[in-house]
């Protein structure tokens, strides 16, 4: 239950960031930086009788059905929450903080701020196995079947929207939108990697048993012990290997420093960990 609450707290934070990036920076400049929102802006230009909100709803309903059938119900329910929450948040912004013109005249500044804020939000939502809707769902499907990173999946699925934006609003806005989508994909992957980053720690110490006990009992993490032989001394030693998050790594390093200043430690960054205590391998 606690884990579910944490998931939805992060999803809520992410969808608010997505809504803010879209509403305050991208939408005023008609920057169709992919997604259902970008596609809706383009379609609205050609069929103004349909509102952008109505078009987004139609697009998302179709993609939700695909998401349920292919990715699974868990992804679908969380995505519905994130997508509807994003739309509702944008509607609240429209009522409380109406914008008649862009915040600044410089379209590059609007593009950079809008993409960074919304892409970080999307990365947070993606990391909880959800989506803000739109073509994000297609990116998740591509990731599931082909292992392509989510940011690159978004880039692939949104490319056609850029072509449409170029025809609708001219080549200049089309090129700005293309730049935004490329930046968007990079920031999403960077965000996901940063959130999921863990440390693989290899420890050679005379106090390997104490260190193992600390990892298991105090940090409540697993560890593996290997029997090794020093190439220079020929002495038999134990090597303790564990994968922990950055906060626990700081605690572990402090503990080892307190009991064995001669310990030999190597540390590697791990960007994805699947299994007990980490992300479910089925996600």
UniProtKB/TrEMBL annotation:
Keyword Membrane attached: yes
Membrane association type: Multi-pass membrane protein
Residues of the DUF2179 domain: 221-275
Superkingdom per UniProt: Bacteria
Signal peptide range: none
Compartments, as annotated in UniProt: Cell membrane
Keyword annotations: Cell membrane, Membrane, Transmembrane, Transmembrane helix
Pfam family for this entry, one: DUF2179
Main location (coarse class): membrane
Alphabetized InterPro entries for the sequence: DUF2179 (IPR019264), N-reg_PII/ATP_PRibTrfase_C (IPR015867), UPF0750_membrane (IPR051461), YitT (IPR003740)
Transmembrane segments: 7-26, 46-72, 79-101, 107-126, 146-167
PANTHER family the UniProt entry points to: UPF0750 MEMBRANE PROTEIN YITE, UPF0750 MEMBRANE PROTEIN YITT-RELATED
Protein name in UniProt: YitT family protein
């Amino acid at each position: 239950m606690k884990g579910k609450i944490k998931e939805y707290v992060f999803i809520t934070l992410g969808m608010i960031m997505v809504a803010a990036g879209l509403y305050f920076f991208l939408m005023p400049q008609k920057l169709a930086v992919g997604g259902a929102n970008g596609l809706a802006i383009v379609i609205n230009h050609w069929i103004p009788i349909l509102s952008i909100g109505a078009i987004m709803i139609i697009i998302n309903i179709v993609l939700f059905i695909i998401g349920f059938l292919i990715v699974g119900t868990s992804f679908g329910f969380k995505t519905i929450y994130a997508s509807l929450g994003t739309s509702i948040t944008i509607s609240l912004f429209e009522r409380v903080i109406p914008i008649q013109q862009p915040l600044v005249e410089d379209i590059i500044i609007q593009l950079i701020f809008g993409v960074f804020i919304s892409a970080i939000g999307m990365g947070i939502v993606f990391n909880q196995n959800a989506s803000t809707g739109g073509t994000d769902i297609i990116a998740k499907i591509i990731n599931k079947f082909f292992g392509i990173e989510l940011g690159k999946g978004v880039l692939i699925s949104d490319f056609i929207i850029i072509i449409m934006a170029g025809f609708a609003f001219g080549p200049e806005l089309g090129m700005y939108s293309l730049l935004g989508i490329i930046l968007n994909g990079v920031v999403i992957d960077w965000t996901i990697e940063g959130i999921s980053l863990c440390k693989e720690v290899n420890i050679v110490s005379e106090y390997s048993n104490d260190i193992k006990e600390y990892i298991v009992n105090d940090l409540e993490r697993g560890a593996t012990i290997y029997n090794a032989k020093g190439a220079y001394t020929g002495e038999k030693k134990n090597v303790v290997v564990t994968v922990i998050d950055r906060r626990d790594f700081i605690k572990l390093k402090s503990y080892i420093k307190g009991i064995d200043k001669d310990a030999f430690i190597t540390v590697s960054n791990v960007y994805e960990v699947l299994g007990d205590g980490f992300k479910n391998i089925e996600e």
